[in-house]
Amino acid sequence: MTSIAFIGFGEAGGLLATGLLACGAEDVATYDILIDDPATAGKHKKKAAEIGVTAAISPAEAVAGRDVVISAVVSSETVKAAASVAPHLKAGQYYLDINSASPRMKREAQAVVEQNGAHYVEAAVMDLVPPHGHRVPMFLAGTKAADLAPMLTALDMRVEPVGDKIGQASSIKMVRSVFLKGFSAILLECLVAAERAGVEDKVLASIQRTFPEIDWIKMADYYMGRLMVHAKRQSAEMWEVVETLRDMDVDPFTAEASAKRLAWLAELDILKNTPDGEPPKDFKSALKLFREVEAKTRAV
Fold this sequence. Notes:
CATH topology of the largest domain: Rossmann fold
Strand content: 5-15%
Number of strands: 8
CATH class of the largest domain: Alpha Beta
Oligomer: single chain
């Protein structure tokens, strides 16, 4: 039986923990900085309890005696999270870093984690966690990636070791994001401009004729709503992509532009302007809301 600790317990952590417990994880705990704030501690504890996870009050409590520690924080906190945990790790524990961070940042986290003999393994999450949950495909890298993989597959995780050097898995994800998150940003900018010109139907119809195998109205509905929810995280991840490309001596022209467009949407904080904090279900309503909120922002 495998015991697990999560450092960070947002959407990904909650979904992974739910699946792992259902597939035989012996004991799951989490530490999240939300527990340090009286305003958010109650909600965090409730979420953990409903899933069957122990809400630890410190990183030390969360990782004590656990076989695998999974870091699931925002990309900018990757090294900080590792530093908060490292003094409490013991030789032989596995530290699985699933954060969407650059290879350079992963190597910095590795150096911190391995000081006391723990095993650092990086993971690149290669699809959306919902709806896959803990079965979301992941690439693993690190000297102990091949050793950790059977422990995770025994819990029905879909993991594949791709190398023994930290950075090999995250490089795949970062380079892939040039296209996938770049596509999101391009579609966003295209539709925002089309709506301003009053020609969004004609633009999508034209794209439909060029790529008839894709339902572009359905695609627009999905991406405009999803980006409202995840633009902040995705823009942060794209800045990691920018740094990754620079480290590879590749000028990140399109990646930087994608990061800026996603940051534009994140800064609008659209969901604060919806009645229930949920995005509209169709792209036209989303585009109208973008324009209205941006107009208010400019007027302030």
